Amino acid sequence: MKLQGKIALITGASRGIGRGIAEVFAEEGADVAVNYVASGEAAEQVAGWVRSQGRRAVAAHADVADRAQVEAMFERVWKELGPADILVNNAGIETIVPFLELTDEQWTRLTDVNLRGEWLCSQVFCRRVVAEGRKAVIVNVGSVQAGKVLPGRTHYAPTKLGLEALTRNMSAEMTPLGIRVNCIHPGLFDTDMTAWVMKRPDLLPGILAQISMGRPGEPRECGTVAAFLASDEASYVTGQSFYVDGGWVGK
Ligand code: NAP
User: Fold this and answer.
1) Ligand 1 mean position, distance from CA 133 (Å)
2) Nearest atom, ligand 1, residue 14 CA
3) 147 C-beta closer than 6 A to ligand 1
4) What's the pLDDT tens digit per position in 207-225?
5) What does the alpha-carbon distance between residue 211 and residue 21 come to, in Å, rounded to a whole number?
6) Which of 30, 76, 117, 146 has the lowest CB atom count within 10 Å?
């Protein structure tokens, strides 16, 4: 098992890709803190599933864009599970709004969660790890839209491309202190975020035709890549961003 004895905090792990990552991490031997913002019951279910694999788990509430809530979440995880070795910054939101109609509020909320949230959780995590003199790993979750234009995403896409720069720059400062930082860019995954696409027979075949694999990904297919990056098998990998997209950007 790649993550035996490790403790991981995964943001947005109550559903979708975050849940897939939590499941793979538990199977690989990690204890898991399951962050959520609204779906407490779903987060408890994921925590219960992790425990059913013989690992420890806690459902941990925090809006990743709120410093006080993030600080309180880390404090609770440290108390209940112990100092975390791995942070996966997965929590994110997507809205689709034409550029000319986008409001200040829509821009601010989305960039706050998707970009500032990953920066904020990373900073709180790294301050603790550095003060404790430990080693650790961060995996950021971006999007295929870092490298691909889709309509109505002038707010979303920059947050995801921005994560590549955040990853590189955090890596440059943190790797010498013992914290590797990498990023994965999911393509089309079947989750609540994309449920509307899956129900559109007029849209879906055209999108799948652009993907070399010809199908959407399963959340666990992000989990296995995140587990590799979080493990010692990736001990010489830092500052990188990887597309996990079945061959979409590359086609
Ligand atoms: P999802 O099914 O909508 O789930 C989103 C998760 O993020 C939920 O656990 C949600 O918690 C959590 N979350 C949202 N806002 C939060 C906040 N402010 N603080 C803490 N948690 C928050 O989304 P997904 O498809 O799994 O996407 C996960 C990540 O992958 C996102 O960063 C997304 O941008 C990225 N991504 C997804 C796809 C795709 O095809 N699905 C493609 C590319 C990139 P609650 O359940 O409590 O609301």
Assistant:
1) 31
2) 9
3) no
4) 999 999 999 999 999 999 9
5) 22
6) 76
